[in-house]
Amino acid sequence: MELTCFKVEIEHNIAHVILNRPDKRNAMNADFWRELPAIIHDIDDQSRARVIVISSTGPHFSAGLDLSMFGQADAESGPELNKNQRAVASYHHILHMQKTFNCLEACRLPVIAAVQGGAIGGGVDLSTACDIRYATKDAFFTIQEINIGLTADVGTFPRLVKLLPEGVVREMAYTGRAMPASEAQQVGLVNRVFDDQQAMLEGVMGVAAEIAAKAPVAIYGSKRMINYARDHSTEDALDYISIWNTSMMNSGEIQEAIAARKEQRSGNFVDLPPKRRMS
Question: Which of 30, 40, 157, 207 is the most exposed place for a label (fewest CB within 10 A)?
Answer without folding.
Answer: 30
